[in-house]
Amino acid sequence: MHDREKTSERLRRAPGFVAVSAATVTLAYRAGILAWPKAPILAALKLPLLAGLAVGLAIEAKAAFAAKPEDRPAAAKPGGETADDLRDALAVFAAAMLGYLAIARLGLNAVLASSLLGLSGALLLPKRAVAIYCGSFAGMAAPAAFETLASVALSGALAGVVYASCKPCFTGIGGRLGAAAYAGSLGSSLILGVRLTGDELPGLGLGLAILGYAVAGAALTWTVSVRLGRGPVLASAFWGAVAGAVIPALHGPAAGRLLDAAFFCGGFAGMSAASRLRNEAEAGVAGAFCGLTFILAMPMLGGAGGKLGTLAFGSTLAYLGLRETARRAYSALGRR
Q1: Does 9 score more than 50 pLDDT?
Q2: Which of 36, 71, 246, 318 has the most C-beta neighbours closer than 10 Å?
Q3: What is the reported pTM?
């Protein structure tokens, strides 16, 4: 019975883990190797992050699939999790639809729409807040790419399945909700033939501003989430709402759209638990990785919901992988 339970749990985790990992690696690869001709210096800086991402994913795979059933969190143990997973998947789907309608029909800023949904979930439906926030990212799909409700509905449905499957995986790593949403959006784009595009790489001034806002978003979100104890969804959604309202007013519509997205992206790294990123400095470093990856990914696979979270997730994993590599190297040198 023990082995059967362990196998069943692994099978439940596998689709979500694979989908999130594939979406993250796809975007990281495109924002690294494929960005080389346009920005060779920045792409060279990204190479260590790709190595760190590989290490991070290997560590998380071992944690997700090598752990014994009795070692996993209580929320993931058998007994009602199927019904709870279904409710979460439905919450993801509903939030995706609401977010897309707010953007496409009401003309609301995408960051603001997602943040308002996140705040509403955290305050009104705390048990489904995480799933609602995940769905809001799927709803951030660009109407120019995902032109119909049906295309976003498919994205939301796929994201809900991925989210429910990978709930026990990647715990405490910021951006995993966006990565689940992005996996759904990419799946929908492949099935329906949606053409994903992107923006031109920014100039030096705008690039530095993107980097700075990403660092600020990560550190501020971590502070509210961990140090003030408000939790990751409320912290990210609060700062996202502030950024969506203030940054475009400060920098104008064009630059403001990019800068509030960069701040929001960094904030997803700041959603990491204290067991992952231990203080604001570490959150800021992960935010800097987000900013670099954000710039390089601007021409890549744009318009799919969850892209910002995926950038943050990959950047945070890369930081954790590099930190663990450095720790092991230091330990090995110390034993000599």
Answers
A1: yes
A2: 318
A3: 0.93
